[in-house]
C-alpha cells in the first residue's frame, strides 16, 4: 500500500501541531513510521488520503460500535445542526438521553454530561472526595482514566506507550494522593487500606481494563473491591468509558453484577461526538452544584449535536439487545481464527477477550496485569502491526491498546483479517 499523501500531510501537520497529532496515541511512535490520515469512513472501513481501504479495528478507540457514519446517528446530528449548534441553556434532549441512560444502566438515579472521558473521571473523583471528605484515591497500574493530573501516575495507553506513565507537570502534592495497586491483586489493595485508614475517598478502576491491552478482572476481584469499599466507607468508581454501552446495555455492572457507587462514561455514549458522563445514585449526585457544594461545569456540556448523536446511538442499542451477543460472537470468531493461524506458525501469543474487546500480546504467560503486559515482545508487535497494515487491516499502533469490534464487521471482513494474520505470522517467529 502507498501512504505518500498521508506522509506529506503528516510532515505539514508537524509544523503547526505538536508531533503532528492532537492526541499522542495517534502517532506511530511505538511502531515506527508515519500515521495514516483518514479521509472518510463508512461501516467497518476507513478510507485514507491515499485511497487505501482499511478494515478498522480501532473504531475511534471505541465509540463506533455500529460502524462509521451510521445513518440514524448522522441524520440526528444533521437535523439538530440546522437548528443551532450550542446555546449554553437547557434543552429537552439532555433530559431524554439522561432518562434513557438511567434506564439502561443499573443503580444510577442521575447522570451529568461532560465533553470527554477525562472530564468524567476527573469530576467523579472530585465528587467522591467532596462526598467522603477524604483526599486519597486508589488507582491500578496500567489503567488509564484520562489525562487529568491525579491519573497520570503509572497510567496506561499512550502514557505508557510514550514512556511517560508519570508525567512531568504533575505536582508531588497531587501524586501523593494517588495510591497504586497492581490490577487483579486484592491483597495489595487491602494493604493500602490498612496503611491509609479513613483516608481513601475512592477506588477508580477500569472494571475490564482496556489500556494495557484488554485485561478482564479475575474471578472475585471486582466483588472483593466492592467489599473492601463497603468496609472502609470508600466509594467504588467504575470507569466505564470503554466498557459502558459496549459490553452490555448496562456495562460491566450489568454483565458482572457488581454495583459501583459512581460510573463514568465516554466513547459509545456520544455516538462519536465529544461526550463524557458520570452517574450515581441521588445521595451522591445531589452533592454536585447547583444542588450541592462540589463544583463542576462546562460551556459545551450537553451540547445539542453531541446529545443528538448519543441519543440516536443509545436508542439503537436499547432497541436491539441481541447486538451485544452478536458482537461477542464476532469477537470469538476472530479470536479463534487468529489464535489458530498464530499457533500453526509457532508464534507465541496470548489473546485476551471479553465481549467486543480483544487484544493480542506476544507473550507466553497469561496477561493479567501491567507487569505481565509489559513482558510481551514489543518487536514482534511492531512487525505484526506493519504486516497487518500492509494487508489493509488497521489495528491500534501499540500493544497497550484494545481492539474494538463493531457490528458493521461482516464474517467476510473477519476472514480477511484472519487471512492477513496467516500471511504475517511466518515473519513473526
Ligand atoms: N477512561 C478510559 C477507560 C479510557 O479508555 C479513556 C480514553 N481512552 C479515558 C478515560 C479518557 O477519555 P477521553 O480520551 O475522552 O478524555
From TrEMBL:
It catalyses: (S)-4-amino-5-oxopentanoate = 5-aminolevulinate. It comes from the Bacteria. PROSITE patterns: AA_TRANSFER_CLASS_3. One of its GO terms (cellular component) is cytoplasm. The modification N6-(pyridoxal phosphate)lysine is found at residue 267. It is found in: Cytoplasm. Pathway: Porphyrin-containing compound metabolism; protoporphyrin-IX biosynthesis; 5-aminolevulinate from L-glutamyl-tRNA(Glu): step 2/2. Its main location: cytoplasm. GO terms for molecular function: glutamate-1-semialdehyde 2,1-aminomutase activity; pyridoxal phosphate binding; transaminase activity. It is an enzyme of class 5 (isomerase). Belongs to the class-III pyridoxal-phosphate-dependent aminotransferase family. HemL subfamily. This is Glutamate-1-semialdehyde 2,1-aminomutase. It comes from Leeuwenhoekiella nanhaiensis. The lineage of its organism: Bacteria, Pseudomonadati, Bacteroidota, Flavobacteriia, Flavobacteriales.
